[in-house]
Design a protein that fits this description.
heterodimer; A: alpha+beta; Gyrase A, domain 2; Elongation Factor Tu (Ef-tu), domain 3; 6-stranded mixed β-sheet; 6-stranded antiparallel β-barrel; 19 strands; globular; B: alpha/beta; 8-stranded mixed β-sheet; 20 strands; 36% helix; methyltransferase activity (chain A)
């Protein structure tokens, strides 16, 4: 028995990769983390209207949803995007890895550029969409809605590359709206006027141009407006916030919550994972899975670039006409938002569902994004209707409204892409 | 340069069977073998001057009858009859051994009469149930995503066979299917020698003990094999296992197969999701529209194809195939034939098994779970030179044994562990064949680490992947890709890592070739 009870050194080598993965996913241990900007946001949060964004405490609104929305369209809106999942992907084969994982051709993404992309599982179903920042020839930042570390690590097998979660280490802000350029210029980010849409560059912050004292600014956003996104190491977050707030004071800068941003993105025709489609790892029901072609992301697929995850399945689905859904923009008669309304053909046959809808103050149209079962929305676009249940003093008023398939984005603002960006 | 329709990677017996089958269907086939000789782990090799033994596989008990027929192996000198069937001898330290004669114990001697009749009942039941599984264990697994009419019909036939068992028997079949072998034996038998032998046979070649759930499947797998039409029969090929490979090779070459040895493939060339050819490690490139990999599935995808040509989910599955061998091989050159206590001359020509009881096998298994070898290993011994004197110098003797348990990932490492394990093995042998130690001229012990290096079998696993319920049938080598085709168009798997699994059966090679022929048609 002595032998059996004798303590033996535990073999650590085999368990190390597993424990490293667990350690890298620390977000499980604290529910609703605060972001690096939390002290500032808490101070502004009059509505105390919070939601859970990827484990972080994030505001739906801070003071007034309507006015927050108009801050995006008329002033400058500051939105904390720190909870967005961020991965550092770096190494000689980072480009090759990302080319294999994501749909678009990463060799065409130049250093200092950003593109919107998506990635699929083996069956060609979309795992997530996100933005890919090429910080240098060998260094990338992948931003997304969901967590993907195990997937990325398993994808990295056989590639000379480091994949690291940097969600907590890197704080992010979206500064969006017509005065956003002027705010940055006045804050002293010299040269920011040279950023064209989807460009990025590093700027000094807190004096020194080295290391942690850099802020990465990209001319990107989720609003369809003139706007920028700023990334900085978490310990520099508050000073960056203050710098922007100070310089933006006279240009109407306002902190906003997600409700306002969600309206702006809908006008811009942008989709949200797990709102407008269900990501493959979240879907429980087999018919909820979506291929890129089924959610309007087919344009990303590059069949010429070499192998990428899901290529075989996507090719087969296209060849065998197995694509079952289509995501469309709708314009609906009247002014009652058709949120989560059922879409009908000839007012009788159910063909889909609205995933996001609003009366657009900018477009002056009643707009929506909907997923329809093909051929509706694809080759059959006539005679579509939505059934809106409008609650009127504890009674539903059922409205059958005509819906027209229209192009996205619903609004197109010249200031989004104008060079140099306009001074307001 | 000659062009080929198909290039087979790996000249193991499955690669050769696939090559011969394709060539007989009119394909122009090239086999590329990394080693200096074909045959893989089914060769006959000289391990000491004048002494030859079968490399790893030393007993033939499951060569697929369709392989024999398709390749006309009987014409090429491979013929077995009932007279060749070897008995299995369950050795005992303190008493006479128990012997299973004929095809897996048609007659049992050395046991009480009540045990004999119990065995008769159990044997009939085991063979009946193995017979139900046999079509599953031979054919291409059903394609769950899109089953063809033929597949549906053959599944229906199995259902019918199951129905024919009768209600009670069918229920019992389903009850015991995933049982552990020890519990089933305890239900029906009393003699621990007999139970020990069956427990050993059920777990041979896998990382399971007799009390591990599903261990009974291993016994079914063995009994689904046949020789000369008799299920469970085993023979020692004259000239060692290499003779089987020689016959298969002769058949392949007669059908026009070209074989190149010392031609290790470094890369499978993939263009736009399609296999286009192979590159050898000397840089030579060869093109063919069909590439058949009869080597390990993990090696095929992770090394030769490379992860960047396949999807992440598939890489995950391939990396998760469990293939750490737990079995070692011992070849002894003896200056005279050994004398196992209580065993007669006929018995010495049989398969001698040291597995005195299910408990003993289980205890031998226990340390392997924690990265240690069995201090009292269980083993299967043959003395092939007794029936085939060409294998040893006159008067001398070859002992070939398969040993368990010897975990691939030995905690102390095999450099340090190997001499200790050999000592444990020799001590075990000495107690059953006193004096054997002194007659050893040369001992060659192949641990899983040695087997990995010498035969290019990752993990040193002779099945190229654990043969357990979760890695069988539609899940072999990985779920979704059990039908010999792969996510790379034009690339097929044909080795033991594919369904049904290892052992000298030729079934994976034959099924893969048939699949390729059917796809083109």
């Amino acid at each position: 028995m002595a032998q059996a009870t004798k303590k033996k050194p535990v073999a650590k080598a085999a368990g190390a990769p597993v424990s490293a993965r667990i350690a890298a996913q620390a977000h499980f241990h604290t529910l609703r983390l605060g972001t690096p900007f939390q002290p500032r946001i808490d101070a502004l949060a009059r509505t105390q209207d919070w939601y859970n964004w990827a484990g972080y405490r994030a505001p739906h609104s801070l003071w007034d949803e309507e006015l927050e929305y108009f801050a995006i369209r008329s002033q400058a809106a500051l939105f904390d995007i720190s909870p967005m999942t961020k991965y550092r992907i770096e190494g000689p084969e980072a480009e090759a890895l990302l080319n294999r994982v994501t749909l678009r051709d990463v060799t065409k993404l130049r250093p200092g550029r950003v593109h919107y992309t998506a990635w699929c599982d083996d069956e060609g179903f979309v795992l997530d969409d996100g933005t890919l920042f090429r910080l240098s020839p060998t260094r990338f930042r992948l931003c997304s809605q969901e967590r993907h570390l195990p997937w990325l690590l398993d994808s990295a097998v056989g590639f000379d590359v480091i994949v690291e979660e940097e969600t907590e280490a890197v704080a992010g802000l979206a500064l969006q709206g017509p005065t956003s350029f002027a705010v940055l210029r006045d804050a002293g980010f010299a040269g920011v006027e040279r950023l064209k849409i989807f460009d990025l560059a590093d700027f000094p912050h807190d004096g020194g141009p080295q290391g942690n004292t850099q802020v990465t600014i990209s001319r990107t956003g989720f609003t369809g407006d003139l706007g920028y996104e700023l990334f900085v190491s978490a310990d520099m977050a508050l000073s960056l916030w203050d710098r922007l707030m100070t310089s933006g004071d006279l240009r109407g800068i306002r902190a906003i919550g997600y409700t306002a941003l969600n309206r702006a993105r809908l006008e811009a025709g942008l989709i949200v994972a797990n709102a407008d489609f269900t990501t493959a790892e979240h879907a429980i029901r087999a018919d909820r899975l979506r291929m890129p072609d089924e959610i309007g992301l087919g344009f990303m697929i590059d069949l010429e670039k070499g192998h990428f995850n899901g290529r075989r399945a996507i090719l087969e689905a296209r060849a065998k006409r197995k694509l079952r859904y289509v995501l469309v923009g709708l314009e609906i008669e009247g002014n009652i938002p058709a949120e989560h309304a059922i879409v009908y053909h000839k007012k009788a046959h159910e063909v889909g569902l609205v995933s996001a809808a609003m009366w657009s103050p900018m477009a002056k149209r009643n707009i929506a994004i909907a997923s329809l079962a093909r051929p509706y929305g694809d080759t059959m676009v006539e005679d579509l209707w939505v059934e809106i249940y409008a609650m009127r003093e504890l009674q539903y008023q059922k409205l059958m409204k005509r819906a027209k398939v229209v192009a996205r984005p619903f609004i197109k603002l010249d200031r989004r892409t104008a060079n140099p960006p306009a001074d307001f | 340069m000659t062009s080929f329709d198909a290039i087979i990677i790996g000249g193991g017996h499955n690669g050769l069977v696939a090559a011969a089958t394709l060539a007989k269907a009119g394909r122009k086939v090239l086999v590329l073998e990394a080693g200096s000789e074909v045959g893989g782990a089914a060769r006959t090799e000289e391990f000491a001057p004048g002494f030859r033994a079968s490399s790893i596989a030393h007993l033939l008990n499951r060569l697929h009858p369709d392989v024999v027929k398709t390749l006309e192996l009987e014409k090429h000198g491979l013929q077995f009859g009932r007279a060749d069937f070897m008995p299995s001898v369950a050795l005992s330290k303190d008493g006479p051994p128990l012997v299973l004669h004929g095809a897996y114990g048609e007659v049992l001697t050395g046991a009480s009469s009540s045990e004999q009749s119990a065995w008769k009942g159990l044997r009939a039941q085991l063979l009946r149930y193995a017979g139900i599984l046999k079509p599953f264990l031979y054919r291409r697994p059903p394609d769950l995503a899109g089953m063809s009419l033929l597949e549906t019909v053959s599944l229906g036939q199995t259902a019918l066979a199951l129905k024919k068992l009768g209600k009670e028997d069918m229920r019992d079949f389903l009850r015991v299917l995933l049982m552990n072998v020890a519990d089933l034996l305890d239900e029906q038998l009393t003699d621990i020698r007999l139970k020990g032998l069956l427990a050993f046979d059920a777990t041979l070649g896998s990382h399971l003990g007799p009390r591990s759930p599903t261990s009974l499947l291993g016994l079914y797998y063995r009994l689904a094999g046949e020789t000369d039409g008799a299920a469970g029969a085993q023979v020692l090929p004259q000239g060692g296992m290499g003779a089987v490979v020689t016959a298969i090779r002769a058949s392949a070459e007669k059908a026009g197969v070209e074989i190149r040895t010392l031609a290790p493939v470094a890369k499978i060339i993939v263009e736009k999701g399609r296999a286009a050819g192979v590159a050898l490690d000397n840089g030579e490139v060869m093109h063919a529209s069909t590439i058949v990999s009869a080597i390990n599935p993990a090696t095929t995808f992770l090394d030769l194809v490379g992860p960047r040509e396949i999807d992440t989910g598939f890489v995950r599955k391939v990396k998760n195939i469990r293939m750490k061998g737990d079995t070692a091989k011992l070849n002894l050159a003896l200056d005279r034939p050994p004398q196992f206590t209580g065993v007669d001359a006929a018995g010495h020509k049989g398969r001698l098994v040291i597995a005195p009881s299910p408990d003993h096998v289980e205890r031998a298994f226990n340390p392997s779970k924690y990265g240690e070898f069995s201090p009292e290993p269980v083993m299967e011994i043959t003395l092939p030179s007794l029936a085939d004197p060409s294998l040893a110098p006159s008067g001398a003797c070859v002992l070939s044994a398969v040993l368990q348990y010897a975990p691939y990932a030995l905690k102390e490492g095999w450099d340090a562990g190997k001499p200790k394990f050999l000592k444990a093995v020799m001590a075990q042998l000495e107690s059953y064949a006193p004096g054997i130690g002194k007659s050893v001229i040369h001992a060659e012990l192949l641990t899983p680490a040695d087997i990995e290096t010498r035969y290019r079998m990752p993990g040193g696993h002779w099945h190229h992947g654990e043969l357990q319920a979760d890695q069988m049938l539609v899940s072999r080598p990985v779920s979704g890709w059990s039908g010999y085709d792969t996510p790379i168009d034009g690339l097929f798997l044909a080795g033991a890592g594919s369904h049904p699994g290892g052992g000298v059966s030729g079934a994976p090679g034959l099924n893969a070739a048939r699949r390729i022929i059917a796809m083109k048609g």
